[in-house]
UniProtKB/TrEMBL annotation:
InterPro entries recorded: Uncharacterised_Rv2561
Protein name: DUF2652 domain-containing protein
Listed Pfam families: DUF2652
Upper taxonomic lineage: Bacteria, Pseudomonadati, Bacteroidota, Flavobacteriia, Flavobacteriales
Protein source organism: Chryseobacterium lactis
Length: 183
């Protein structure tokens, strides 16, 4: 049996406020808005990450990389966040509605494998489960943030840039950086 076990980065952008949005928005309108927002995130990725899957309001991105770049990834997150907010403004204006969604990111690092089922590529491993578990956390004070796990921070190229001091450090998990504090 051939396996594809490698080290890499898991990135999950996820919408905060999604459940309430779905329950309070007409089906066609909601689908259109979510499709536009997810497409915006994919476009801002600039093919840096591969897409494993899209589920509801989240995208499971990954990149095999033994020494990931904090600077590159934080730059992509900022681009995604800015484009997401701009798209919400555009859609709110063109549809004459209020879109109460924000964006959070989980950035994790570890070992995982990949397998194929038909035309689908699936990721597997403890790292994938951990990243998904971090989506539901009570650590962040604001809905819009990036959570960089200790595993990611320890394996990234730290010499590239100093990590921002803004935000909140949760010793057993990692660092939460609020977008309002990141320039």
């Amino acid at each position: 049996m051939k396996t594809n076990i490698q080290e890499g980065v898991i990135l999950i952008p996820d919408f905060s406020g999604f459940t309430e949005f779905v329950f309070n928005t007409k089906l066609y309108t909601g689908e259109y808005i979510v499709r536009e927002l997810l497409s915006t995130l994919i476009d801002m990725n600039d093919r840096y990450f591969e897409i494993s899957e899209i589920e509801g309001d989240a995208i499971l991105f990954y990149r095999y990389d033994e020494q990931p770049s904090y600077q590159n990834i934080s730059g992509i997150l900022k681009k995604m966040r800015n484009a997401f907010n701009k798209k919400i403004e555009e859609l709110s204006k063109s549809l004459s509605t209020t879109i109460d969604l924000s964006l959070k990111f989980i950035v994790h690092y570890g070992t995982f494998s990949q397998y194929n089922i038909g035309n689908f590529r699936k990721l597997y491993g403890k790292t994938i489960v951990e990243a998904h578990q971090l989506l539901k956390n009570g650590l962040a004070e604001q809905p819009s943030y990036a959570l960089y796990t200790n595993s990611f921070l320890e394996n990234s190229k730290k010499q590239e840039a100093a990590f921002p001091e803004e935000g909140f450090h949760q010793e057993e998990v990692g660092a939460i950086h609020y977008f309002e504090n990141i320039n």
